[in-house]
Structures are given as C-alpha cells and as structure tokens.
Amino acid sequence: MSVEADKKKDNMKRVTIGTNYVGLVFKNGKLKRVLTEGNYWIVFGETIEIHNMALAYNAKTDLDVLLQNSDFAGLLNVIEVDDNELVLVYSHKNFKNVLAAGRHAIWKGLSDYTFIRVNTSQIEIDAAIDKNLLEKAPLLNYIRAYKVDSFEKALLFIDGKFERIMEPGNYAYWKNSTAVQVFKSDMRQLNMEITGQEILTKDKAQLRVNFNVQYKVTDIIKALMENKEFDKQLYVLVQLALRECIGMMTFDELMESKEKIVGQLMTITAGKFDVLGVKIVSCGLKDIILPGDIREIMNQVLVAEKRAQANLITRREETASTRSLLNTAKLMEDNSMLYKLKEMEYVEKIAEKINNISLSGSGQLVDQLKQIFVK
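Predicted structure:
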C-alpha cells in the first residue's frame, strides 16, 4: 500500500448502521448523506448522527433544513397539526400517542403508522373514536369528563345556554374555549329536618317543634334552572306553613290532634311545591318540646288524671266485691248446707294459722271445735 493510501485510510472512519437505524452525515453543518442499514466510511471533516427510528425523532438541526434532502424526507412522517386539532397516532392499529397543535416528525422505520385527525373546535367527540381511549393518559388532558350516576339527572349548559337534560351515564367533551357546565340533582327520595322551631300557639303557649319532610325532585328544569337553591326555598316554605298551622290552633287542640297539622300544611302550600319542581312524599310533626313551667304543669295534670282514674277503678272494684259478697250471703241464707260448707272453709283457713289445738276427752270433738272457731 502506498503512503498516500495509508494517509487516506487514516483520514476515514468506518461506521456500521444497524437495522431500524439511520445515519445523518454532515459536513460544515449541512446534511450531505443519509445512511441506512450497512457499513460505510466517513471521511475527514464529516460528522455523523445515528438515530434509532423506533424512538421519537430528535435532531439538533432545524427540521426545515433537513427536509430539503429528499432521502431524509422519505424516512419521516411529517404531520402538521393546526390549532383546534389533534392527531391520534396508531402503531400497528394500536393507539400510541396524541399530537397537539404544531409540526411533528415521526420516523417511519419498521412501524406501520396511521393517523386520525380530529377537530376540537366543537365540543362533541366523534363517535368513531374508541371511548376507552378517553380514559387513557395521553387523551385525558384534552377532554372534559362528567359522570351522571344512576340515581341522578343533570342539565347541560353550553356557553351559558341550556342545551339538554343528561340521563345517567358517562359524558366526555373536547377541551376548548367553549364553556361547558353540568348541574346535577339527586332524583331519589330525600329527607329534610326542620328543627328547633319556636312557635306560639293561638292561646300564646310557646312551643319548640321538630318537623320532618320526605320529598323527591320531579322536574329538574324547574328545580335547578327556574329556582336558585330550591332545597333552601323548600325549607322556608314548609317552615312558614308550619308556623301558620300551629298559630291557628290552641295548645290543647295541638296536643289532641297533631295529625291535623299535615293536612292543614298541605292545604296552605297547595301548588307551591310544583313551582319548585318537587313532590312531598310524606311529612309529619316529629317532636313537641314544652318549656319547663308548662311541662311541670302538664306533669301535674297527668298525675292528677291518673290518680282520679286509679280512685275510680278502686271504687269500681270495691263495689263489685261488695256486690259479690252480698250475692254470696243471700245464697248461704237460702241454703244451710252452703252455709256449713262456707263455715268449714273459713275454719280450714283459720286452722292453717294455728300450730296446736288442745281438746279434752269429754264431749263431742266436733262440738268442741265449733266452740273454738264459732261463737
């Protein structure tokens, strides 16, 4: 080998480009050659960048400059994504990534890529997009997700304008400048406690009552759109009606017929619940709490009533007992044998309480016993 050949060999570098790799040969900052799989010599003054086409494109040189080389341009998928657009990237028919607005370059390599372009200027998501993808991290950042449970309904507002009623289910919309609002309501039977209401009766007795209401939302548009905080309005409506009902009754009337309050309350509020979009399922007076002095008086009245009842019962029993004795005496008066049996019954009861009986040998024993027990 000549000296010139040796010098030339010293000024060259051998490189090997593997499968699915590409080499970019630069000289003076300009792309000169594109090397695919194989062995190559790099001469003095040339530099090489080796890229793995299975990985994301990442070159130091401006892409527009590199694309002027047709060999390089043939190795890339260049995707232009406009504002209000997304591009879904699939590799071998499997979702791989999502591309936002801008220019993107993806090595072709050994992968078979397909791209789906979607318009995000509208909030509705194309039905062709698999709904399962919306739950994955790459797309999750570009959507607004809402869930309406099986016991709920919701109102959908687009840019502040009512759009429609949302039935139970999962909903997803693209994120963009359009304002989306979802207002939900529980459609199950609900409970409301109206507690600690201090109310004056018709005869100026001050009471504290607790009232209970079970209700259901029947018209979600009236409840959420035509009324602000319908549940608070329902509370005030029942509270005022309850005060009106109790205010028309005396204390004694209230104590004797608490169940009438429900009927009166429903009469007073007739039609007012429909305006709120709700239906009263049931309601009732839960507790009546009396002030200390009234409670003490009520206790005294109750004790007096119970004592009077006890005395009445005692007198009734005494009368019945006396009548029974009188009937027994009349029977014994008319029947001497019955009298003797009754006499022997009492002798037996008395004998049970005597430990010892002394009898002398003279006279009849029965006569002596008779002298002991009977005068």
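Summary: The longest strand covers residues 206-217.
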